[in-house]
Write a structure and sequence with these properties.
alpha+beta; 16 strands; 27% strand
Length: 311
């Protein structure tokens, strides 16, 4: 499993909850946990600090306590529980660092913004627990899937843009089309995934980071060599300039070099305003992937490399 960077009386509870919803944010008290809620407008997640009643609690015991807090109305007027009241958490299971949350089937009825914020609130809260590396959602016994029907799987806080201090109207929850390799490694297959994008992060960067991360489904193969780093990306006058580290030139044993290249080009060319992709390696464009492919000129989308399913 990939590690991507887990009652006291009302009077005491009032003392232990510290609001981070208002303008005057406080430092997180030592030994406390940030319980993430949404603001009243459901435009952002925000933290209320909570001190567990048992300072020695850990693992499932601590997860159960934080889950109760996530479902309890916060003691501040400008925050609310992220999960709709109609949706119930049926059980939680911690196994090998992965906390699986089983929600009722009507979880699917949430609109996309509410669902993403709910997921963000739970994952960011629970992955603070040292024994919880990832959080996975299931609806009944079925795994949660994205807009393309692909299993989302275990999540970490890093899977979500930190919008604690930013309004969601500066964010988008949208579909992106990514091109991965087929099992033979000689054709591209489009895959639709959900993406949360913020005002400080471009769609181009989100697409490239998802390609670097690799596919969520076992039906396709990743196209970017391990260790490749995205050094920079920007778009100007229809050309997306991508600067990758040297590792991108390392051949993959099961994927053709042209497929690795055009997985990037075709994915980026699905974005508005991107017509061509100029790739550089460590800032240099006088490089070649294989003898006949030079990075000296921008690339355009190549639809001939897309696998066609013949019915």
């Amino acid at each position: 499993m990939k590690k991507r960077s887990l009652a006291l009386g009302m009077a005491l509870l009032l003392c232990l909850l510290f609001s981070a919803c208002g303008e005057d944010r406080q430092e997180q008290p030592e030994g406390s946990y940030a319980i993430y809620y949404t603001n009243i407008e459901s435009t952002k997640v925000t933290a209320v600090y909570y001190q567990p009643k048992d300072s020695d609690a850990e693992g499932e015991e601590l997860a159960d306590e934080l889950l109760r807090q996530l479902a309890a109305p916060p003691n501040v007027s400008d925050c609310k529980v992220a999960k709709p009241e109609s949706v119930t958490l049926e059980k939680a299971e911690l196994s090998d660092g992965n906390l699986i949350l089983h929600f009722s089937e009507n979880y699917r009825e949430m609109d996309r913004i509410t669902e993403v914020l709910c997921r963000m609130a739970y994952v960011r809260t629970l992955t603070q627990i040292p024994q919880v590396e990832t959080v996975e959602f299931q609806l009944g016994e079925e795994p949660l899937t994205d807009a393309g029907g692909h299993r989302i799987g275990p999540m970490t806080a890093e899977d979500f843009i930190d919008n604690t201090d930013k309004e969601i109207d500066a964010y988008e929850v949208d579909d992106v089309t990514l091109y991965f390799a087929n099992q033979a490694g000689d054709k591209l297959i489009p895959v639709t995934e959900d993406a949360v994008m913020g005002s400080g992060i471009s769609k181009e960067r989100v697409v490239l980071e998802k390609l670097l991360e690799g596919p969520q489904s076992g039906n396709v193969i990743g196209t970017i060599p391990e260790g490749t780093k995205l050094l920079s990306v920007s778009t100007d006058q229809g050309v997306c300039y991508v600067n990758l580290s040297e590792e991108f030139l390392t051949p993959l044993p099961d994927v053709k070099e042209t497929i690795s290249l055009y997985s990037i080009v075709n994915s980026l060319c699905q974005l508005p305003g991107v017509d061509q992709v100029q790739i550089a390696i460590n800032g240099e464009t006088d490089r070649t992937l294989i003898d006949e492919i030079t990075f000296a000129v921008p690339f355009e989308e190549n639809r001939d490399l897309i696998e066609v399913n013949e019915k």
